[in-house]
Amino acid sequence: MKFTAALLLLFFTSLSIYGISGVALDTNKDGELDSWEEQDGEGNTIFQFDRDFDGTIDYLVKINGFGNKMIEELDYNYD
Fold first, then answer.
1. What's the pTM?
2. pLDDT for 60
3. Of residues 20 and 22, which shows the higher confidence score?
4. Counting CB atoms within 10 angstroms of each CB, which of 24, 42, 59, 71 has the fewest?
5. Rounded to an integer, what distance in angstroms lies between the CA atom of residue 61 and that of residue 45?
6. Burial status of residue 21 (CB atoms within 10 A of its CB: 0-12, 13-18, 19 or more)
7. d(Cα 48, Cα 65) in Å, to the nearest integer?
8. Residue 23 neighbours by CB under 8 Å, 6+ apart
């Protein structure tokens, strides 16, 4: 799971370098989006993941323009 999250983070970050924002993916191919990347207008990138594919965001991380993690929220019990 950590490898998948790291790979998605790398993918979304590479898209940010080219000025692409507002990307969403369906990582498990069930027809529902479960990974999102967006820019907040201040040079920060926000990544959100639905790790258990129930439609609720379970993991959020906000990274500033220097690549430093500013906020990280993780729902361990998937409620």
1. 0.70
2. 96
3. 22
4. 42
5. 8
6. middle
7. 17
8. 12, 15, 36, 37, 38
